[in-house]
Amino acid sequence: MRNLTNQLLLFKKYIHELNSFRAVIQSRCYSRPTSFPDYFQNPIFRKEDQLKLIENNELSKLASVPIKPPAVYETSSVYHDPLVNKVINHVMEEGKKKLARSLVEKAFENIKRIQIERYHLATTPEQKSKIVLNPKEILHTAIENCKPLLQLTPIKRGGITYQVPGPITEKRSLFLAIKWLLEAANEKERTVHFPEQFAWELLDAANNTGKVVKRKQDLHRQCEANRAYAHYRWQ
Amino acid sequence: MSVFIKYSKPGSLGAVFNVQVLWRFNSTTAESIRKEEDEEFRVLDILKKKDRQQKKQIRRADIQPDRADRMATDQNWGNVWPGPKTFHPSSVPLPIRQGYVPKGQAPPGKKANAELMKIPNFLHLTPPVIKTQCEAIKKYCTEWPKLLNSEETIEKHYPLEIISSDYCHASPTIRNPLARVVNLRIKLSSLNLDKRARDKFLRLIGDRYDEKTDLVTFIADRCPMRKQNLDYVNYLLTACYHESWSVEDWESEKTEEDMEYYDWNNNASKRSLVNWFLKCNNEEKELTDEEYKNFDISKIPNAEGYKNAVNSLMNDGECDATLKTYGSSVRKLLGLPEKKVT
Amino acid sequence: MFTRNFRNICRRYSQSVTFRTTETSPVQQNDNQVGLFYTIEKDVCKKLFGHGGLPKSYMKQTKTFTETTLMIRQPALDVIDCIKASDLNKPAIRYVLYGETGTGKSLTLAHLIHYAHDAGFLIVHVPWVSEWLRRVPRHKEMSNSQTREGFVDLPLDAAAWLLHFKTQNQTLLKCGDLKISKDYVWSKREQTSAGAPLAELVEQGISRVKYACDVIDALVYEIKLLSNNKQCKTFVAVDGYNCFFYPMTRLNTPTKKKVKPEEVTLTTTFMELTKNDWTNGVIVLSVDQIAVPEDHQESYLPKYLLYKKGFEHLDPFVPVEVGRYSEKEFLSCASYYRDRLWLRGPEDLETELKLASACNPYKFMELCAPL
């Protein structure tokens, strides 16, 4: 019981951090140095952000600051979503972004078709109102459900490597969630296409069931079991 | 003193010299002492002001000012510079500069400037001089034919146009390689070719024909001399002209596919139209090719517009506009309502 | 403040846009209903398009939307007006639908077939010519023609088409008014005698697949004869007609010889049907870029796609362009998608989608899919 409350507390803390989550995805981290010096600011390409700037009268400050050009995926389009972009980048192999994008979009289409079908099958209005039709919403909840709260780090003490539980950063947990979802989606029959499988995985994860959520829970259980090693983190 | 004289050997130069020096030495010391007494104090002149004042420029009084400066502004230039001549600074009253210098410096002036003297100049060919010279040789010219009074008549009687260029420029040689190029221009209509010959002529000359201006242009630059090139373009025109008039055996084998022009009358389109018309009037007839060709389409209502539409579709290429006219003409032909414009 | 007002207006407007009409019979539809959707009843849809005729992506949509709806558009109404205005006793008039890919040529054809069904035409509909000539599954049934020297039969395809023909015209065929004019001897034991109903001929082709191509040949001959005698009026619809004129098919004879489209019996049969030497008929054809390989897809205009040969075969025909959505059609389509839950989100979405899809119907549908 105490563990559960502990976890809940942790969870609340992470909910609090959710607001910073947007910043995590939207920030641009380059593995290599770019051609722009460090004093170049990141572009503000969303209309709502720009409006916020205008309200706070911060626009004039930016007027004289050099700003990087926005990347192709940073659009002011109505259906722009940073998390979706992130997932597309994770799906991408060998820089084939167009393909990755089409795969993710097809998965969304499949989700939508499945959900609309369910909607039409549902008989009462209450049931209907429960069904989430927006595939992006499903993706968001799925990833939220898959994010681990703890992680195990191997630490060597006295010739033995212990799996030591510890807190996890926001960025790492997001990375693990997407990675696990994609790994689960790629574990499929040869005849099943990726978009279909990915759609099913997302729907399962959004329901808090399925392979990925189980994997997360396994990790949590392991952390719980290895609680005794926790002091190795600082000793 | 006496001691010195005593011991000197008479007849020896060196000894004498020594004696004199010594003597002088003794006497000068005596003199300097005396001067110090009567001369004033000498001032140490480090900057040597006195010497500087003394240096004076010596000028010859008989040199004249430059002739170029003395020239009158309204003089007759033709008299000053009557013929081709190497550049002379004093004869040219112009502030000319010429020469290559490092960046930021002004080029050297005209005096003693080899750059100016090297190049051929055209100072003797000023417009008034040319004018006067032309006036002078006018009496040897024949009169311009009175009937050639307009561009059209000139074009009519002298359709052939030869264009070549002469070049004047600074270089060791006066010949320019571009001077050998000869252009020959002629209006195609002035050649009086018939339809077949015109087609053949155009095929022979390829892209040398400009449809907009109706001009045929031959350019020759393959020979080293202009005369040769001129002969060559004349030969080309003559050869193409006569070749286009000659009819070869294989020219009769030309078929519909080779023609760049679609003739509706001997095509399947007319045949199908005639068939359709006969079918409409319930006449079953088997027509020969000749009959199809000569079928009078004025009997069929709206057929003329249809014919034009097919012709333009085939000849001008398929585009939205031609297709639209085709569609509306077919609708008229078949008696269908017009397409509604939304 | 202004933006909020504007949004409210937009919302109210988008809700008030009517996108449906209750007029389900194409015979009654008129210009007032342009841009509106009408529903095809389920049994009619199954009857007309049960064996193909609607594009695959559209079938998927109908499943998701739980209904088959078509937008009433100008080109279809235009052709219907022309059919109504024309004199059927004159030779059959050919209409050629053309347009960019994804503008709805096949669906316009489907609309016209529905019209023909309601107006009591005998429908001869080829869902997609490339299915015969260009799609080669691993084991394509092919055989040399028994009756015609140097020709190739596609018996399975032919039988499948006969089935399609049968289901489409079940009511007309059941009446039994349509009779065969002469005896057809298939083999020593099998023959179809004169005076037998047309349905028997079709049945013969379906049950004895070997003779399916010859049956179609006979069927076309009979249909033309019946139409000429004013016993029925016929509506011919061929989708992807220009495939008949592309110089090569992808078929190979067992001896690895390439087959030209003229050497396929089905081609000659349908060429015969699309001539205008018969009356009491309407011929609607569509030419499509994707019916031919990529090397001949530079333009979507009919003369280019049909080649000179095809043009001369069809001349004079009525070209009917199927264009992109107009402003009104786009709005009605967007509100229909919203109604069917296919499109969700703020109102600005429409403007953006309109720009991104350039009002191309198929592109619009595709762009809406992941939203």
Q: What is the CATH third-level topology name of the domain at 152-247 in chain B?
A: Double Stranded RNA Binding Domain
Number of helical elements of chain C: 15
Which chain pair shows the most residues in contact? B-C, 28 and 27 residues
As a percent range, the share of helical residues of chain C equals 40-55%
Mean pLDDT of chain C: 86
* Secondary-structure element order of chain C, N to C: HEHHEHEHEHEEHHEEHHEHEHEHHH
Helix content of chain B: 40-55%
Topology (elements, then pairings):
The complex is a heterotrimer of chains A (235), B (342) and C (371).
Chain A lengths: L1 H25 L20 H9 L3 H5 L18 H10 L5 H25 L3 H6 L4 H12 L3 E8 L2 E8 L2 H17 L7 H13 L4 H15 L10
Chain B lengths: L1 H6 L5 H26 L10 H6 L12 H4 L6 H4 L33 H5 L8 H11 L13 H7 L3 E4 L17 E6 L7 H11 L3 E2 L4 E6 L5 H20 L22 H13 L8 H6 L8 H13 L4 H15 L8
Antiparallel strand pairs in B: 1-2, 2-4, 3-4
Chain C lengths: L1 H15 L20 E4 L1 H8 L6 H10 L2 E4 L2 H12 L7 E6 L6 H14 L3 E5 L3 H4 L9 E2 L7 E2 L1 H14 L1 H6 L8 E2 L5 E2 L5 H10 L4 H17 L5 E5 L26 H9 L7 E6 L15 H13 L2 E5 L5 H13 L8 H10 L3 H8 L3
Parallel strand pairs in C: 3-10, 3-11, 4-9, 9-10
Antiparallel strand pairs in C: 1-2, 5-6, 7-8
What keywords describe this structure?
heterotrimer; A: 235 residues; mainly alpha; disordered N terminus; C: 371 residues; five-stranded parallel sheet; two-stranded antiparallel ribbon; 15 helices; globular
